Amino acid sequence: MGWSKEEVLQIIEHLRSHRGDNATVEVKKAAGGLPKNLPETLCAFANMPEGGTIILGVDEKADFELVGVPNAAEIEAGIVSQARNLVEPAPWVDTETVTIDDKSIVVCSVANVSLMHKPALYKGKAYLRQADGDYVMNDSDLRMLEVAKLGANERTHYDEAPIPGTSVADLDEDLLREFIVNSRKSSRRLARVHDDTELLRLTRIITSDGELTLAGLYALGNYPQGPEPGLQVTAAVRLPRDGSRQRTRNLTHFDGPLPVLLHDAMAWVEQNISTVRVYLDNGHMTDLAELPLNAIREIIANALVHRDLGPNTLGAGKSVQIRLLPDALIITSPGGLQGISIRQLESADITPVAVNPRLYYIARQLRTPEGYPIIEGEGGGIREAIESMDDRNLGKPIFTDNGVHFSVRLLRHGNAAMGLVPARATEPKPVTDANTETDAQLDKYGKNASVVYGVIDQHGSINLNDIADATALSKGQVRYALKALLDNGLVTMVGTQGRRDTVYKVSR
């Protein structure tokens, strides 16, 4: 393709705001000629689903300053030579020199090798692009490539696989009842099936032998992580490198069925992202999450429902990952995109593609403990996320697919970029007569555990909405604190989760 000066500068500015390379673009200074690790990068981009771009003559360490290359013609020829002679099979590369401020910038577009000829190798090793680096593919990654080569009609529907030693007794009764009722409401044919066991067989919750399918276990099971530990979600705040040994904070592993995973993961995100104050059109101010929660919810729901459930991911214990970085929130799901490209994913007329068709159907019948649908069901979830980020002038979500995992990055731009007043952590209102010793003990359960506990103790019994009002915390923050208090036996729930009349009491 023909690269213009404006296109190159746009990419550089994007990388500068992103503070580094990404999975589809690599910049190198190349002051002394071809970089030593160029063959690894060529090989890695050849194995990416949509290839990648290499830009030479840019100094990443100097805030992506354009420094140029000494001999652009030799650099271009060297790139082509390395691609042809060092990578097998050789990827198609297109090189071009763009002059910007009298500096020669070499741009190289690397096409992906066809799926049937993957993996591309350099010195006998297959490389893959991940974040901003090139990594040797492991055995699990290579097996996933082999599975991807199968035609759609040859692929195994892993979500229908039986789970030995399980039965309907392993399902959550409330979720099971909800699924049966909603299935009959949504289908005239299923409405005529009066036997619950037969309905569960027809919808592939159970097999003809009465064992749970993977989809049934994942969506409706009491504890899906027993038979399949990879059906969990792991979340953590990743700390900047500041000389201390601490790398993460609030590392949490979520378990339970699909609706609970979504609910708990969202509560964790609400607890850990910043709350900012924004001016309304009428001049007043309101508290707002720094990232649109509806966008985050749709992305997490898609990660849970459309993750790969094959033996090379789930069988290897790979789970959905949520990481909160200083500059971004990243949600990663095992397995690459199937049947759709990133370009199609970003288009306005996206057509739903279910990686796990049986699980997708079940999820459409379920709701979170708050009563919200798990998924939108018409392929509009990602479009909703894109539009929500755009409405807040936060930039579009960054989608990355390397064939082994799929990730979505939501950039945290800071208050100046969003036109907000300085951010503040939401400060709970003070609670009188709090037990100081108890507060210190409760700190280990989270930063808001003591104030939530104090309000419950003060009122005797109180519902979730009133706790939020009394503490000035968001409902998500209250739920997160309540979960820790409930799990450790410090608070008792009277009623059913998700109902407005449910109250909480201090355990005596």
From TrEMBL:
InterPro entries: RecG_C_sf, Schlafen_AlbA_2_dom, Schlafen_AlbA_2_dom_sf, WH-like_DNA-bd_sf, WH_DNA-bd_sf
Gene3D superfamilies: 3.30.565.60, Schlafen, AAA domain, Winged helix-like DNA-binding domain superfamily/Winged helix DNA-binding domain
Domain Schlafen AlbA-2: 22-137
Name of the protein: Divergent AAA domain protein
Organism of provenance: Corynebacterium durum F0235
